[in-house]
Amino acid sequence: MIKELKRLLKEKQVSAYEILETRSRSAQLFYVLNKLETNRHTENRDILVTVYDDHDGKRGSSSFKAMASDDATSLSSKIDNALLTAKKINNNHFDLYQKTAKKLKEVPSLKADDLGDIATRCMDAIVKADHFEDVWINSTEIFVTTTAIHFMNSLGIDESFDKTTLEIELIPTSKNAAGEEFELYFDTTLVDDDPEYIQKAIEDVLKQAIARAKAVSYDAEKMKPEYALIDGEMMLAALDGLIGELNYFKVLSQSNHYKKGDQLTPYDLNLTLKAVIEKAADSRPFDENGVVLDEAAIVVDGHVKDYWGPINYGQYIGETNPSGRYGTYELKVAADKKIDKLSCPYIELLRFSSPQFDASTGYFGGEVRLALYHDDKGEVIPVTGLSLSGNLYEAIKTCAYSAQEITHQKYHGPKAIYLKDFKLH
Questions:
Q1: What is the pLDDT of residues 400-413, one digit of tens each?
Q2: How many Cα atoms occupy the beta-carbon half-sphere of 407 within 13 Å?
Q3: Topology given in CATH for the domain delimited by 2-212
């Protein structure tokens, strides 16, 4: 199929093209109340073709999917249709990625021996974790997937990588003394199937489900936290928001909050985009345009150093070597901004209905489904019925960070951020 595509693209004298081929094999297990309902194995192949047409100093583009059922006739028709569309688009010209001396970094991956065995071992760890009263796992889905990515373009780029990941989705359900039931949702993707790590992660979410059933309404009169702790989804939403403000597209559209040289924080804070982070499942050696990734330090010592983003928008704003699109990043902060343990009242905001960030105003927050209030005597009270709000651009200037570090699917750095400038209501 690829050979035939290249022949047709050359025959039709397209100005340029990109081909992104994705092959995947997956073992999938579906459980209801720890009882296996479905055992599925899948194999897929997706080919995305982007055709470019140069006209009147402009470069238009259009994409289509090549299917297994396509033959030379149908592929030829798809290329013709894509070219017709591309001729009507008048984007500024940009160059496709060309060969460099950069070498592809090796991405973290599970050993792709028997995908089914990995899935079964994972479920064994989940069953071991399910040992608490008044909480159970309503449903579990396990996906072990080997993905092979192959990228080619008309300038001779031909590169590939593969990795195997383990995704776990489950819904724990808890019940309080009155018989009311509460659900939480858990989803993680790993490149490590360490059974002890998986068991601990599931035990933690089951404990959160128990806490949700016991939660009382937040009392703003009695509860006076000095810090609000955010981690997981909310912390990543905040950091993603800051990083997104430094994207080439934001700069091009003149909607970016920060500019090069701006002070983001009055303390040392460093944000580095990385091709590969150990144990981070979203690591990748190149992006969707074939750009080989390395490292891009975008915030250094609290100041904006650089922008980042896809090759076309980078060229549009005058970048000679656009960074490419990264999947993972690392956060480092000054030692005096790290906290081992708080002695003052604080609140852990564990579960949000939908974390939100508005780049135009800096607003971030959302409805909190579960929080743990720590009073000055060390007592921990599960609470619900509250919302967080704040201005991220201001809050980042006064916050602190946990000394403990963690690696998520796309992140390595402090496990949590301690907000000083926030509102609970």
A1: 999 999 999 999 99
A2: 15
A3: PmbA/TldD fold (3.30.2290)
